[in-house]
Amino acid sequence: MVLSSSGSSLSMHRTGAAARREKRSLMAHSDSTSSSNQSGGKFADDPSFYGSVLDQLHAEQKGTIEALTCQVEFYRQREERHKKELDTLRRCLPLGGGKGDDARASVAKLASENRTLGEELDALRGRKSAWQSDRERLERQKRELEKQLKDAKHTLAGFSQAIEQLELKMQRKETEVQTRCLELEQELRAKTQECERLEQEKDTAEQQLENLQTASGENQRLRAELQALLHQTEGRQTNESQVSSSCFSSEIKSISDKLNGLEEHKRRQESEIQQLQGKLTASVAGVSAAQLEAERKNSEIKEMQLKLDNTASLLALREQLLTSDGNSRREGEAQRQELLALISTLQREKGELQLEISGLHQEQEVMKTELQTAKARLSSKDHSVMVSTLRSEVSSLKERLRSEFKHEKDGLRSETQALKQEISQLRGRIAEKELAARGLEDQILRKDEKKKQADYDARQLREQISRLQAELEQTREKYQQLQECRTALAEQLDFGFKELLNDEESAASAHEEVEKLRHELNCLKKENAVLESERQTAAEELELVTRQNRESTARQTEKIDDLYRQLLEKEELIASLKSADRQVALLEQEKESWEGNVTDIRLRCESHVETEVRKADGLRARIEQLEQDKLSLKQRIEELEGGSGKQEEKVQASKQALIQKEQEVEALKRDVARLERQYADASESIKSGRQEKSSVEKKLLRERKTMDSEMKQLVRRIESVGKRNLELGEKVIALAKQSKVDQTDLVALSSQVKSYKEQVKDLEGQLGQIHHRRGRDSDNVHNLQQKLGDVTCLKESYQVEINKLRQTMDHVRTEMNLTKQQRDEAVKRVRLLVQSREQMKATVEDHTAELIEEIEALQHQLDNERKRCAVLLANEKTLLRDLKERNAAVTKLQRTVSALQQRQQQTHESTSSPTSSSRRRSRGSSSPGTPVNSSNESTVQTTSSLSPQQPEQRSAQPQQESTSVSSSGRRSAMAPAKEMEHLLRNLERISDFSSQAHPLQC
Fold first, then answer.
1. What predicted TM-score, i.e. pTM, was given to this entire model?
2. Closest C-alpha among 1, 33, 94 to residue 748
3. For residue 755, how far is the Cα from the chain centroid?
C-alpha cells in the first residue's frame, strides 16, 4: 500500500509537472497564435494584402502549422485523460495476461501513426525551405519589375511629350500648307487671267494680220495693173510727160521720201513687235512653269494625304493593341476580385480548420499517452510488421506515381504533337501570306513605274504643246505685223495713187511688190492653216492625254487604296500569327518546365520515401539544432522588424510619389483636353475652308482621342502593377514573419516531444507495476477492453478525419499550383506589355523621323517656290514696263501718222492747183495724161472732160477734191474689204479712161 501510495504520489507529481509545462506551452502557443493573428489582421486590414498570389500560399502554410499545433494540443489532452484512467486502473483492477497482445497491436499501430506524423513534419519543413527560396526569387522579380516600371514611366512621359510636339508640328504644317495652297491658287488664277488676256490680244492681232495680208495682196494686184497700164501709155505720154515731169518729179521724190520713212517706221515697229513676242513667250513659259509647279504641289499634297492616311492606319492598330491591353486589365481586375472572394472563403475555412485542429491536437495528446504506454510492449515482430507495411505502402506509392507519370507523359506527347502540327500549319500560312504580300509589292512597284512613265509622257506632250504654242504665237505676231503694214499701206494708197499712175518706174516696182506680197500672203495663209490644224490636233491629243492620265491616276489611286487595305489586313494576320508563334513557344517552354518539375518531383518523392525511414532517427539531433536556431531566429526577427519599419516608410514614400504622379497625370489630362478643344476649333475652321479634308481631320481627332485614352489606360495599368508589386513585397515580409513564428512553434513542439518522451518512460515504469498487479485487476479487464474498443473507434474516426485533412491539404496544393500558374501568366502579361511598349516606342521614333524629313523637304520646296515667285514678279514688272513703252511708241506713231496725213493733204492740194492751170492753158478739152484721183468723183471728172460741159466740171473740181480728202479720212476707218472694193472700182474706171483716151490720141 505504501508503495502504491508513493507510486501514485510520484505519478500525480509528474502529471502535475506535465500539466504545468503543458499550460506554459499552451500560453506561449496562444501568445504566438494571437500575435500571428494580430499580424494577419493588420495585413488583412491593409488593402495591399489582397489581390496577389503569394498571400494564399503563406496562408496555406500557416494553416498547416496551426493544424499541427492543434493536433499536438489534442494529443496532450488525450495523454492526460489516459494517465488518469491508468491511475484509476492501477488502483482498482489488475490487468489480465491473455489480452496484452491486442493492446500491443494497438500500441504498435499508434507508434506507426506517430512515425507517419513525424515524417509529415519533415515534409512540411522541406516545403518551408522551398517556400523560402520561392520568396527570395519573388523578391528579386519584384525588384526587377519595379525597375522596369520606373523605366516605363520615364519612357511614357517622354513618349507623351513627343506626341504633343508632333501634334503641334502637324497642326502648324497643315496651316502652312493650306495657306501656301491658297496663295498658289490665287497666283494661278491671276496667271490664267493674264493668259486669257494675252490670248485675246493675240486673236485681235491675228485678225489685224489677216486684214493686212488681204490689203497687201490687193495692193500688189493694183500695182501690177498700174504697171501694165503705164507700159501701155508710155508712147502716148512722151509729149505730155515733158510738160508735167518737172511738176511730178518733185512730188515723186517727196512720195519716195515718205515711203522710205514709212518703211523705217515699219522696221522699228517690227523690231518692237519681236521684242514683245519674246516677252510674251517668256511670260507663257513662266505661266506653264507655274502650272507645272502647281501640279507638282498638288501631287505632293496628295502624297502627304496618303502619308496621313498611313499614320491614321498605324494609330488604329495602336488603338486595337491598347483596347486589348484594357481588356486584359479588366480581366486582371475580375481575377483580383475573385481572388479576394477566395481569400475571404479561405479565411473562414481557416477558422473552421483551426477549431478542428484544436480537437485533433487533444486527441493526438491522448494517443501519444497511449503510444508511450504501448512502446514498452513492442517487439521485433511489431517492427517487422511496420517495415513490411511501410515497404508495401512505398511500393504502392511508386507504382501509382509511375502510372501517373506515364499518363502525363502520354498526354504531354499528344499535346506537343498537336502543337507541332498547328505550328507547321501556321508556318505554311505565314509563308503563303508572305508570298502574297511580295506579289502585291511587285504589283505596286509595276504600277508605280507605269505611273511614272505616264507622267513622263504627259510632261513631254506638255512640252511639245508649249513649243507649238510658242510657234503659233510667233506666227501670229508676224501676221499681226503684216496686218499693221497692210493698214498703213491702205491708209496711204488713197493718197499716192495719183502720183503712181504717172510714174512708170514706181508703177513697175509697185506691180512687182504687189505680186510678191500676194505670193507671201498665200504662203502665210497656207502656213497658218497648217499651224491651226496642228494646233487643233495637238489640243485634241492633249485633251485625250489629260483624260487618260486622270482616269489612270484615279484607277491607280483606287488600286493602291485597295492594296494598302489588303496589306493592313495581312499585317494584322501576320501579327496574330506571330503572337500565336510566341504563345506556342511559351507553351513549349512551360511544357519543358513541367517535365523538369515532374522529374524533379519524382526524384524527390523517391528520395523522400527513402529518407523518411532515416529521418526518424535524426529527429533528436534536429530538435537540439532547432533550439539553437530559435535563438538565431529571434535575433533575425528583431532585425526584420527593423527592416519592416523601414520598408513601411518606403511604402508610404512610394504612395506619396504615386499620388503626385496621379496629380501630374490629371494635369496632363487637362492639358490634353484643352489641346483637344483647340484642335476641334481648328478642325472646324479647316472644314469651313477645305471641305475635302474634313474626313482626314476627323480621323486624326479620333486617333488622337484613342491614343490619349490608351495612354491613360497604360499609365493606370502600370500604376496598378506597381501597387501590386508593393503588395507582394509586403506580403513576402509578412510571410517571413510568419515563418519565424512557425519556427518558434516548432521549437516549442520539440520541447513538448522531450517531455512526452519522459512521460513515456514514466508510463513504462507504471506498466511494469501494472503487470505485477494483474492478478488484482482481473475484474476491471472487461471495462478496459470496452474502453479499448472505444479508443479503437476513436482512432478510426481520427484516421477518417486525418484522411479528410489530407484531402484538404491536396486541395490546397492544387490551389497553390493554380496560383503559381496565375502568377506566371501575370509575369508573361507584364513582359508582353513591356515588349508592346518597346515596339510602340520604335514606331513612334520612326514616325517622328519621317515627319521631320518631310517637314524639311517641304520647307526647301517652299523656299524654291518663293524664289520662283520673286522671279515671276520681276518678269511681270518688266512686261508692264515694256507694255508702257509700247503704248507710248504707239501713241507717238499715231501722232506721226496724223501729222503725215495732214501734210499729204496739204501737198495734194498744192499739186492739184498747178495741174488745173496747165490744163486750162494747153487746150479746152482734157488730155488723157491728166492725173486721175482714186475716188469715184475723180474718175467721173476725167471721163466727162471730153464732153462739152467742161467748164462746169472744172468749176466743181475743187469741191470734188475736198470730198476726196474727206472720203480718204473716212476710208481709213472703213473695213479692209470695203477698201479693196473701192480700189478695184477705181482701177476699172482708170482702165476705161485709158481705153477711151487711146482712140482720141490716135
1. 0.20
2. 33
3. 76
